[in-house]
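Throughout our pipeline, every protein is held as a single compact record rather than as scattered files. The record that follows is passed on verbatim for readers who wish to inspect the format.
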Amino acid sequence: MPVEHYENFPVASFLLPRRLVPAVEAIYAFARSADDIADEGDALPAERLASLERYGRELDAVERGAMSADPMFARLSRVVADYRLPVAPMHDLLSAFRQDVVTTRYADYTQLLDYCRRSANPVGRLMLELYDAVDERNLRDSDAICTSLQLINFWQDVAIDLAKGRIYIPQEDLERHAVLETELGRDPSSPAWRTLMRFEVERARALMQSGAPLAMRLPGRVGWELRLMIQGGLRILEAIEKVDYDVFGRRPTLQPADWIVVAWRAMKM
């Protein structure tokens, strides 16, 4: 499928072993299209949920080894069979996407982490399966990296999500830093907003750093791929800091010069 979205990190980059490219592309096509069902277009919530339920039935068929008439699911079924992938992480993704349709606020950080557990962590776990690198320590660090990447995406997309009626900043954090929901975006230079975002950025950075040892344990190209993802995430946090946390004026993204910095830091890890 054509990639028509801005992605922080390239899908199936040159560092990915060629033998795994079809598998990663199949997983990406499923996850991206399901996410778009929840997020894009003008469909009503009931229509979005119905489409995601159809995806769930297709996944059930994949798990049974049945071949789908849908080319995307037929390809995914072959990948699941060839690599003996668990289907549960894909169901977790669908659970998170369904939640996006009906949930627009998160009371506390624990609730947000539970969402990330289903919206981001499954991707890292599936990658560990493809690399035959699943163990307790690797899963723990992968979850930390993926959750951090999800949080980083939230913090750079506060304005975009707000326009969709969603706020991922935990309500308890807004209250603790005296930031009213109705004032979001009105004064991004206010001390209260900057203090709140500084707190969120530092928490995401600490989580990323806690999982970073995984990149040093995984050998070869996968280790280098992961180092780039880690440093890319940290670089986006720096971009948020560079604009003094004003993510409403312009979405902080990685520019070509940033990738040079990311590559250099990845080599120094």
The longest helix spans residues 220-242. The radius of gyration is 19 Å. The mean pLDDT is 92.
